[in-house]
């Protein structure tokens, strides 16, 4: 009996250790929960708990309607491009307290951003693509666009710590997972040194030469790749070897940029039949891409086939996905986010903005928080 | 995306302005001498004149009156410039007179100035259309003259003001900026350069004396032909008062007073209230000052209006219209011959006998008898020394019919929203196939508008699925006037969409011998236009 008791105690002790180890592992990797973060026309940020389908927090932003919405990796601070695309603002997600502000204009040079907004992997520097115009007394002079780099530590009156020129038509910018490269996605994808802006390489889109395909028309507005670190976007190309009347004359595809490996690829999966605004890759099955507009579509990008397509209640611009790949969230456009089961593409839930205002083109990001 | 309507409202104010209705004649009389001073006072703080007295930017561009007014409006909207209504009118007048367009330069773009419904552009350069014709008409640049440097400044203004322009469809597929500032700039400067022979010879042309009585003829789609007189008085500062005395073919009478300003020696801009509705007139004066022609249309509902031709009754025999133009064989008709000093023998050619004739302030009213076997085809009409080739057409049976415009846009409106509906007015136009007997060839003969019975339907399967025909509006079966639905999301529709739709409009016409003919037009009912301007 004594022996047995001892053994049991040891087993329990052992079990306890195992449990503790398991807990620790969870806390450091997967215990942070997924939240959905988006902005609205009413100049607010909304944080939802998508598992519970509930609104967790609502924050009024300085500077109004945001377009780009970028959380820090610890989920504590959110940076937005807003103020009619003329400024960057940062707020604490817990308190709503403004902690960062930078105007993109300087003296007689008016700066405007668009969707080029990225946070360095160490959360210390905020990068923005800025389109600049010198306002002379009786004329406007368009200047070379720049990437402006801000130190988030500079707080509410931040000025760029570095600037470097970037190609016109650069839309989004994203860091490689190791932080050593900055991908500037525009007419082509330029690979830049984030310290100097020096171009190290370029992946051709417009300047590409894919057999029998025109340069892709790519819609690169939304950033919704944080679950996989694979940035994706819908592309539309024309077959140069077919008459325009051929059903296959126009092709819809997906562009992928793997921010871990640096791999880029474009895969056409159907004759163009529907408008698609944005897409996201499934973290649980990296052959699967989900796309959205007035339909939700599931695409197998390895087989280059459309797996399933369903009609939505209305048009949605943005899409994101749960960490386990079981649910997709479609948002943007109006005031509701709908939840769909990735296995069946059936609607299983919804959340709405309490003030009824439009999300419009605001990004809808996943935030990982404890 | 929602936008404010203040822009539209400011154009409405402008509508009265450009026609001179709100600026006093005394302010205008001084316009010539004070033009430069007005610019110095209102614009000089930024556009400071150089040593030669030139105003930077302003002195390097030529534009239509509408174009100049749009510029001043932009100075107000973008740069916070405050200009009184009188100063705005005087500056626009002065700049249009001294840096305007010659008649031959504005001629290809009358459709834009006249807001012709359903007008299609046909600029021969497809790249130019994609570069400069996708947000507004190519008439907007086409009604301006600049050198390459000035065109380039305008392109800088565009991209400086709307940095996202480069990311839009038809921009992001190309190196828009490089193309715009090289190829497009060169093409613009070549097509529409600052200096021109036409302007050199027109420049300084003074507005002729327009005082007196004019004979007027026109056609208003949905209502019919009209004729009458227009009495013009005044003239100081090129400002005129006008009294209209018109009657329609259906017997209704229209009397109204209006006011106008003539710009650049030929650009007549007027306002007149017709049946309680404010209308604008955009007309050109012929070089000899004898004929005015153009269109009048609602200040708000510019899709509703009429074409107009007026001739000054100064004693030079001139015939401008025979109404109706189409005469059916074997029938008797009353025809209005509109013009100046119409005296003497009236002829419509063989087979048409004039059996009665009465003199009118606008010309001559005649009764004609068309022989049953009179030859089909166009006829020269003459009265004494005045004649009009193809002034009338004799027909026996209508060969075919088309609907005009062949493609049209209507816009939802009202419904508690800030903007009114925009209607679509259709007409059924009859044709003879001509000598070759084949439809759609060069020798076809136009008979003008015919009475029709109207209906509308879904344009295609997609429209049918969304029940566009049910929601997007309705057409008056007699007049061909389509009234679009109310603005705003419709809870009864799929996706709670607006009352937009893709429709076909169908006209049924009797060919004159009991046989039905039909024709269709394509009508798109779309959302409101939130931003507007004189030249779309």
UniProtKB/TrEMBL annotation, chain A:
Coiled coil: none
Gene3D superfamilies noted in UniProt: YVTN repeat-like/Quinoprotein amine dehydrogenase
Membrane-spanning residues: none
Signal sequence interval, chain numbering: 1-32
Signal as UniProt keyword: yes
Matches recorded under InterPro entries: Host-pathogen_enzymatic-act, QH-AmDH_bsu, Quino_amine_DH_bsu, TAT_signal, WD40/YVTN_repeat-like_dom_sf
SUPFAM superfamilies per the UniProt record, alphabetical: YVTN repeat-like/Quinoprotein amine dehydrogenase
Record keywords, A-Z: Signal
Protein name in the entry: Quinohemoprotein amine dehydrogenase, beta subunit
Species the sequence originates in: Insolitispirillum peregrinum
From TrEMBL, chain B:
InterPro entries: Cyt_c-like_dom_sf, H-AmDH_asu_dom2_sf, Ig-like_fold, Ig_E-set, QH-AmDH_asu, QH-AmDH_asu_dom2, QH-AmDH_asu_dom_III, QH-AmDH_asu_dom_IV
Annotated ranges, domain Quinohemoprotein amine dehydrogenase alpha subunit haem binding: 35-199
Domain of life: Bacteria
Signal peptide: 1-27
Keywords on record: Signal
Residue ranges of every copy of the Quinohemoprotein amine dehydrogenase alpha subunit domain listed in the record: 209-312, 316-396, 401-532
Keyword Signal: yes
GO MF term list: electron transfer activity; heme binding
Protein name: Quinohemoprotein amine dehydrogenase
Organism: Insolitispirillum peregrinum
